[in-house]
Write a structure and sequence with these properties.
Strand order of the largest sheet: 1-2
Strand content: 5-15%
Structural class: mainly alpha
Helix content: 40-55%
Number of strands: 4
Shape: elongated
Radius of gyration: 33 Å
Largest sheet: 2 strands, parallel
Number of helices: 12
Distance between the termini: 110 Å
Length: about 260
């Protein structure tokens, strides 16, 4: 029978051998040399050794992301040919004409319908909707007051597209809507909580194009300036409670009567 080899005690190993074994057992591998435990910032753990403070969250920027929305109702009426409006192609530019007198139209049906088309971004839908809204508001007068609750959701949907062109056009429409009748301004005050939240995200978003010409300022399509103008119009025509409600939703807004 072969003898079983006897393991030597540690004292029998040479001194250099014991040192190399100790280093091999207790020295961390290269993969763990740079390991640091992630800890939350401003905590007691952040003062400990071999720890790393977690990085701050990166802004996702969803406030300015555009959303694609289409007006199914407006497109359905257009494709069926039920809109009392037509587009005339002229040499000097396209012109929209009404097939029925505007004063004889049912504002309870057509005004919310054309407002619903403000979120459109393609021709000819956006052309019909925008020109139709402007004409209806110009000739509506007191008939607009009773339709205001039906206009809130279309306006909110247009603003929520976060498309700068759509938002600028919608802000101009809001100004025209407020000034179309003395009854409209105060009637919009209860709906500020639905219309004004998005104003905070874009109130200070002005285009800086460096040495280039900003044609948006020439056409009054600067989103930041339009928001300020719209808020001022809402305050002027909204009555006594307008400023308080605007200030609640847009804390950075300053009254136009201060200056």
């Amino acid at each position: 029978m072969s003898a079983v080899p006897r393991s030597r005690p540690k004292s029998e190993y040479p001194k250099d051998t014991k040192t190399s074994i100790y280093r091999m057992l207790y020295r961390p591998s290269s993969g763990f040399q740079n390991f640091r435990r992630i800890v939350p910032p401003f905590s007691i753990e952040s003062l400990q050794k071999n720890t790393k403070v977690a990085d701050p969250p990166k802004p996702h920027g969803k406030a300015h992301n555009q959303t694609i929305t289409q007006s199914k109702t407006f497109r359905m009426y257009y494709e069926r040919g039920d809109l009392p409006i037509r587009l005339e192609y002229l040499t000097g530019g396209d012109k929209i004409s009404w097939t029925v007198e505007i004063d004889k139209l049912d504002y309870g049906l057509y005004l919310p319908l054309f407002f619903d088309g403000l979120s459109e971004t393609k021709h000819p839908y956006k052309t019909y909707a925008r020109q139709g809204v402007q004409d209806l508001l110009a000739h509506g007068g007191e008939k607009i007051y009773s339709v205001i609750p039906q206009l809130i959701i279309p306006i909110k949907n247009a603003l929520n597209t976060r498309n700068l062109e759509v938002m600028c056009v919608t802000l101009k429409i809001i100004q025209q809507l407020v000034m179309s009748s003395e009854l409209v301004g105060p009637a919009l005050v209860p709906f500020y909580r639905q219309l004004l939240p998005l104003f905070n995200a874009f109130k200070f978003k002005n285009i800086n194009c460096g040495d280039f010409i900003d044609y948006g300022q020439k056409n009054n399509m600067n989103i930041g300036d339009l928001i300020d103008e719209t808020l001022q119009v809402l305050e002027k025509f909204g009555g006594d409670d307008a400023f308080i409600n605007i200030k609640y939703m847009v804390p950075t807004y300053e009254s136009c009567y201060i200056n």
